[in-house]
């Protein structure tokens, strides 16, 4: 990752510089690696201007800043070992489960983003994480793997706000899955 190399070089050659990373990656390993390299701030693309200003102010004051949702998740995950599914693959987060459920209904990233009040890029990023965790290459394989790995309740989690969007979709959602 070029950002890692750049952060490493800047941190070693200019230790007085406080680096803030703005990225689409909310992968725990990326956050941890950057903080270990000497990065002071880690923000996700799509954050507000106010959050960027807050991060710059805190880092300037000598503090560390990680997007709050990431910081909370990192703290929780540090206290519990990573869960693995029956097939040995990494467990999906509840948000990833919800997004995978919407994909299985045939919704596009844009429709999922609208229904969950997210940006389309954020949904794409979640889909990348989902596919990596499930060890699949595309959306269709993710849905098929997700159906095999359904929760003990026997179904994907639901989101009330997406029900009306899902009902507007074609009766043949797999066709739309293969076209994305």
CATH class category of the largest domain: Mainly Alpha
Q: State mean pLDDT (0 to 100 scale).
A: 77
Distinct helical segment count:
10
How many separate structural domains?
2
Termini separation:
26 Å
CATH architecture grouping of the largest domain: Orthogonal Bundle
Largest sheet: 3 strands, parallel
Instruction: Specify Rg, calculated over alpha carbons.
Output: 19 Å
The chain-level structural class is mainly alpha
Helix content: 55-70%
Q: Give the ordered list of helices and strands.
A: HEHEHEHHHHHHH
CATH superfamily of the largest domain: Winged helix-like DNA-binding domain superfamily/Winged helix DNA-binding domain
CATH topology of the largest domain: Arc Repressor Mutant, subunit A
**Could you give the order of strands across the largest sheet?**
1-2-3
The coarse silhouette is elongated
Strand content: 5-15%
- Extract low-pLDDT stretches: 151-156, 160-180
**Based on the structure, what is the oligomeric state of the protein chains?**
single chain
Total beta strands? 3
Structure overview:
By secondary structure, the chain is mostly helical. The chain folds into 2 domains: 2-79, Rossmann fold (3-Layer(aba) Sandwich), CATH 3.40.50.2300; 94-178, Winged helix-like DNA-binding domain superfamily/Winged helix DNA-binding domain (Arc Repressor Mutant, subunit A, Orthogonal Bundle). Helices cover 56% and strands 6% of the residues. It is built from 10 helices and 3 strands, in the order H-E-H-E-H-E-H-H-H-H-H-H-H. It has helices at residues 2-13, 28-37, 49-60, 68-79, 94-104, 109-116, 120-134, 139-148, 163-167, 173-178; strands at residues 20-23, 41-44, 65-66. Strands 1-2-3 form a 3-stranded parallel beta sheet. Helix 2 links the parallel strand 1 and strand 2 (41-44). Helix 5 (94-104) packs across helix 7, helix 5 crosses helix 8 and helix 7 packs across helix 8 (139-148). The protein is elongated. It starts with a helix and ends with a helix. Residues 151-156 and 160-180 have low confidence and may be disordered.
């Amino acid at each position: 990752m070029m950002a890692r190399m750049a952060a490493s070089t800047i941190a070693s050659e200019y230790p007085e510089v406080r680096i803030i990373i703005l990225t689409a990656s909310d992968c725990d390993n990326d956050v941890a690696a950057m903080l270990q390299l000497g990065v002071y701030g880690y923000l996700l693309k799509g954050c507000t201007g106010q959050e960027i200003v807050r991060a710059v102010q805190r880092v300037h004051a000598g503090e560390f800043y990680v997007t709050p949702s990431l910081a909370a998740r990192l703290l929780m995950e540090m206290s519990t070992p990573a869960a693995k599914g029956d097939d040995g693959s990494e467990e999906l987060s509840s948000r990833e489960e919800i997004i995978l459920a919407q994909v299985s209904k045939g919704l596009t990233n844009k429709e999922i983003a609208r229904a969950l009040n997210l940006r389309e890029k954020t949904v794409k990023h979640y889909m990348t994480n989902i596919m990596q965790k499930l060890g699949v290459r595309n959306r269709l394989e993710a849905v098929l793997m997700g159906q095999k790995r359904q929760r003990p309740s026997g179904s994907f989690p639901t989101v009330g706000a997406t029900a009306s969007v899902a009902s507007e979709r074609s009766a043949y959602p797999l066709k739309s899955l293969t076209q994305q």
